Amino acid sequence: MNLFRKNNFEEESKSKIFVWTLFDFANTSYSIVIVTFLFAVYFKNVVADGKPIGDFYWSLGTSISMLITAIISPILGAIADFSAGKKRLLLFFTLLCIVATSLLYFVGAGDIYFALLLFILANIGFEAGLVFYDSFLPEIAKPKNYGRVSGYGFAMGYLGSLTVLALAFPFISRNMIKETFPLASLFFLVFSIPLFIFLKDNRKDVVPDRSYIMIGISRVVNTIKNLRYYKNLALFLIAFFFYIEGVNTVIYFSGNYASTTLHFSIQELIIFFLIVQTTAIFGAVLFGILSDSIGQKKAIIISLIIWIFTILLAYFTSAEDAFLNKLFSGIWGIAPTELMKYSFYTVGLLAGSVMGATQSTSRSLMSALVPMDKKTEFFGFFSLFGKSSAILGPLVFGLVSFITASQRIAILTIIGFFLIGMIILFFVKEPPKTNPI
Hints:
Blueprint: H1 2-36, H2 38-47, H3 53-83, H4 86-103, H5 112-134, H6 137-140, H7 146-173, H8 180-198, H9 212-225, H10 231-260, H11 266-294, H12 296-315, H13 323-332, H14 336-369, H15 375-404, H16 407-410, H17 412-425
Helix pairs in contact: 1-5, 1-7, 1-8, 3-5, 3-9, 3-15, 4-5, 4-8, 5-15, 7-8, 7-11, 7-14, 10-14, 10-15, 10-17, 11-12, 11-14, 12-14, 12-17
C-alpha cells in the first residue's frame, strides 16, 4: 500500500512538472516572435519606415515595460503570498500578453504610438507573469531536483521557440510578417491552458483589513527593512543583477549585431536563431542535471566562464582585420567576410548552450535560497533585479556603441557585467545539498 501511494505521488509530481513546463513551451512563442525576431524587425522596417528613430522608440518601449514590471513585481508577489492567488494573477497577465500580442496584427506603417502601447502592455503581461510562474517551482519539485526541473522548463521553452518558428516559416517566406503575431498569441493561449486547469493554487480564506495594494506595499517595505536577516539572498540578487545584465544585452542585441555589423540576411538570421534555440535546449537540460550534481553556484560560474569566452570569440572574429579572422582565413583560404559569418554561427552555438542554462540555474538557486513563506514576494524581487538589468545593460551597450561607432567594441562591456556578477557570486553561501534518498 505504501509503495502504491509512493508511485502515485511520483506520477502526480511528474505530471505537475510536465504541465508547468508546458507554460514555458507556450510563452516563448511571444518571446521569439515579438521581442527577439519578427516584430522587432517589423517595427523598425514597416512601422518606423526603416528610419533610425525606430531604434530609439524600440528601446524606449522595452525600457518602459521593464521599468513598470520591475516596480510592480515585488508588490504583486507580496499580494500573492498573502492571499495565495498567484494562479489568478498569472492568468490575468497571461491574457494581457495574449490579447495585446494578437492586436499587433492591426499595426501598420506610421502607427508608432499604437504599436508601442500594445508592445508595452504585452511585455508587461509576459514579464510580470513570469514572477508567478517561477514561484511554482518550489511547490512542484524537491530541493534536490530544482536544477533539472528548472532546466526542463527552459528546454521546453526553447523547443516551443523552434516549434513556433516552424509554424511561422510559411508566413515569413511569403513576407506575411504581421500574420505571425496572432499565430504567436494563439500558440501561447493553447499551450498555457493545462497549467490553469491542472496546477492547484492553495487558496487562503483571509479577510483583508485594507486594500490588497496597500498590503502588498507594506509587506515589501517590511521585507526591505528586514533584509539584514536575508543577507545571503540579498548578495545573490546583487550578483544576479550584474551577470544577467550580460545575458539580457546579448538577447536584445544579438540579432541587431548580426544584421548591422555582420550584414546577415533574413535567411541567415533564421539559421542563426535556429542554432541558438537548438543548443539552448540541450544546454538547459545538461546544466540542470549538472547543477543538481555539483551545486547551482558552481554551475552558474561555469556558464559565466563560457559566456566570457563566447564574447571574446565574437570580438576577435567580427572584423575583417580581427586577429582570429586573419589567422584562420589565411590557413583555410576562406574570405574574411565569409569567415566572420561562420564564426558568428559558432558564437551562437556557444551562447545558446548557456543562455537558458544561466537563467534556469539562477532560478533553481533562487528557489533553494528563498524562505517558503515569502517565495512569491522574493521572486518578485528576483524579477525586479532581472528586469532592471534589462534597462541598464542595453543602455551601456548602446552608449558605448554610439561613442565608439563600433558595436564590436561595445560587446566588450558585456564581459564586465559577467565578471562583476561572478566575483560577487563567490561570496554567496549555497544551501547544503539534501539527501537524495
